[in-house]
Amino acid sequence: MTNIYYVETDATHNGSFVFDIPNGHDCWLLVITKTPAFFWVNGEIKEYPAHSAILFQPHQKIYYRACAETYINNWLRFESNEPYITETMLPRGIPFSLEDPDYCHKLFQLLVTEHSFNKDFKESSIDYLLRILFNKLLESYFQTEISPQYYNLINLRTEIYTNPGDNWTIPKMSESVHLSPGYLQTLYKNTFGISCMDDVIISRIRLAKEYLRHGSYTIAEVAFRCGYNNVEHFCRQFKQKTGYTPGRFRNHAANSYSEKESIL
Known about the structure:
Jelly Rolls, Arc Repressor Mutant, subunit A, four-stranded antiparallel β-sheet
C-alpha cells in the first residue's frame, strides 16, 4: 500500500531556496528538477543539471538548493511498503538524469489529479501511476548515456510517431532540433539504432496497417493520411516493409478476422 502525503508540480522558488532536513523525513521523498540544482551527495555539494531525479529513503539526510535565479521542481512525499519502491534498484540520495522528463512530468500531473479527488478507484489509480513512474525512473537510471541533445531527439521521435502523416523531411527535422542535417542523421542513428527517415517510414506503415485493418478508406486515402502524396510510392514502400501490397494486406486481415469470428 502507498499513501501520498503531498505531490506538487512546477514548484517554483527564487535563487535563495534551500531545502535542508539533516535527519530526513519519516517517509520517502522523490524530487525531479526542471532547473539545475546543488545536491549534497556523499559528503559534498555537487551541481546537477536540469531533469535530474533523486529518491530519498526515510530518515536519509536531505539537502538541495538553487544554483540560479530560479529553481523549479516536481516533488512527491509518500510512504509505501510496496516492494517496487522499498526494494528498488534506484540509488538513494544520488541524482541521475531522466531519459524522458516530459513523460515523467505528465505522470506527476496525473498523480496530482488523483491525489486531489476522492474517486472510487483513487488508491489503485495512484498505485498504477507510481509503478509506471518508477519503471521510467529505472529506464533512465540504466540508460548508458544521455547527451545534451537527447531531449530534443526524444521529443522529435515522439512527434514523428504521434503525427506520422506530417511532411517529414531531413531539413525540417534538423531545423526543429537546431542541428545540421548530417549531424542529426548521425546522432539519431547512434541514439535509437535507426535512421530518422526509416523511423518516419515505420511509423507511417504502422498507421497504414491500422487503417487497412479497421478503416473504410480507399488505398489512396490511406496513402494520403499516412503522409504519401504518391499512391504508387506508398504501395511500393508498404510491400517492401510488410511483404504485402496494401490491398492484399487488407484482404488477409479481413479473412483472418472472419476466421476468428467463426471460431467464436
